[in-house]
Amino acid sequence: MARDIVLDTETTGMDPLKGDRIIEIGAVELINLMPTGRTCQIYINPERDIPADATAVHGITDEFVKDKPIFLECYTEFMDFIADDSTLVIHNAEFDMKFLNWELQHVGHKPLAWNRVVDTLMMARKKFPGSPANLDALCRRFEIDNTSRTYHGALLDSELLAEVYLELLGGRQRGLELGADAATKSASGSMAAKKDRKFRDPRPHSASESERAAHKELLDDLTDPIWNKVQGK
Fold first, then answer.
1. 59-103: per-residue pLDDT in tens?
2. For tag attachment on the chain, is the N or C end more exposed, with fewer CB atoms within 10 Å?
């Protein structure tokens, strides 16, 4: 049984070494490349202010997280969810791993190993060199509906990334299909909907009388057609 955990984080800024902290973790479980409907979403009190420019990205405010648990009080929920047997699928893994391992270090937990990480940003750059490889661009490329992504959100982005990940592996036909209930509802309130595709009506393809006459005239003008040689004529 192959278990993948597609995950994302939201933070107060860009660098934990400058005092930035994680404020949301979101994760989606895949078993044998199929979503199980199990998700994990944790909001975290960063024990510091959230800059306005960060809130503009993810919409999370100081007021919202002031009554949330600090990392020390909730990280075991996340660690239990990812367990030790899962592959961690992350877009731009260097960023999220930097924050996760900084937070884990400060609560006395061993860091997450890099050998269990798949970076979908690297996958996309290898598959589509020179093309935009951010999550929005990949959703557009694979016709994944991300219209609900008004703000970045760790769980919503993980759900979108799960679809992108399957496309990067070769297509959602490999198994990214949920049951009716899970497809319409998840811990974030909605699973990324697949885009409705419009198909053209069948077009007539039979040759008209004038087209057949023109074709016959063309054949009559040929003096040594190649198919005579192939057939030994």
1. 999 999 999 999 999 999 999 999 999 999 999 999 999 999 999
2. N
pTM equals: 0.74
Catalytic residue numbers? Answer: 152
Domain range for residue 74? 3-184
Residue 41 lies in a domain: yes
In whole angstroms, give the CA distance from residue 25 to residue 40.
8
**Is residue 114 domain-resident?**
yes
Note the pLDDT tens digit of each residue in 162-216: 999 999 999 755 444 444 344 444 444 444 444 454 545 555 556 667 767 776 7
Residue 66 within a domain: yes
